[in-house]
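User: Hi! I'm working on a homework problem where we have to compare a predicted structure to a textbook description. Could you give me the structure for the chain below?
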Amino acid sequence: MKILVLGSGGREHAIAWRLRQSPSVSRVFVAPGNPGCAQVAECIPVSNPTPVGFLEAARQCGADLVLSGPEAPLVDGAADLFAREGIPFFGPTQAAARLEGSKIFAKQFMQRAGIPTARFAAANSLDEARAALDEFTYPVVVKADGLAAGKGVVICPSRPEAEQILEEMFAGRLVGGAGSRVVLEEYLAGEEVSFIGVSDGERIVSLEPSQDHKRIFDNDEGPNTGGMGAYSDSRILNGQQRAFIEREIMQRTIDRMREEGAPFRGFLYAGLMMTGRGPMVLEYNVRLGDPETQALLHRMEGDFGVLIRSAAEGRVDSSALRFRAQPSVCVVLAAAGYPGKPRTGDPITGIEEAERRGATVFHAGTRLDGGRLVTAGGRVLGVTHSGETLAEAIDNAYRACEAIRFEGMQFRRDIGRKGLARWRQ
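Assistant: Happy to help. Predicted structure tokens:
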């Protein structure tokens, strides 16, 4: 089987890396990919990064199955286009992808389906949003309705700060057109968990739990980013919590989407807050998370290709899914200036040494410049390692990070620390 992966980041490198190890997969292609993807797959340049451009890439390589790493092609209707052209595609339709493409749609869907989530109000104008603030205590959460690359969520500790963020959202200064409509939400206290499943439209098979670290600085300080690191450990959830999430959130979402005429086939991601009232959904994503994918796939065993193909064909095969018990940790190395405008073009050294130390280094924002590897984005690399314990996995990952250098490199030094505190390892 020949599989084409759409995208160019660390998640796509990790997907291609894992597919390359699948006995059912003969060739892996990535469009457009990056220098790391090129080490494990064949990269296809894409001059037109739209569903039409990706369709051309699929025809060029003769793909037997296509899947999208990022959300934008899914929200733009890639699955619908590929279905019309008769090319197998794993991912939700445009109608189903609204779960991520519109925060307002997602919140209203959860309300209809009885899925536990924070109290909210939707607003289509600045005046409407200001009036809705009267319904909330502080802190309050302001979310852009549209896609904002993980940067459309702001926790506002007071009304003046909330009004300022709303003004910037509606003026287009914060996240562009994604903020032309907003959701206001009650603030939920607790610990976040990323829970991802593989659905064939009727059933859903769970991956292992993971935890992302969104803020740029240690101790969850500073602005939100696309994710500064993640770890995966089975102990993040106990059996009772996992059973509740699988039944009352994941399967209920799949059932309700089918009932509403938009069956969901693909990776369903529920961003959860573990509150005193139980697990509550913060947001949906309609694809694998980034950087959760790097940690998850580092632990995964079995044939990833069989898992995806079976789900795409409407008969998800859970026997193809296995995980090692050992926890995995991914530490993101980011460029100077991130999460604002990142500096690019800085030479990168030390990846080979990091890999000699046992890490798998996934490329996110890199490019080749005259044979040199240089930075080309905000999140540059995802240094990923495992260990017999979470403490060992953390130590292994950070030891590998020490080998890598580029000017202005920044990274969090507390990835996985909440887990250590929880289990007192």
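For your comparison, note the following. The chain has a mean pLDDT of 96. The two ends are 43 Å apart (CA to CA). Good luck with the assignment!
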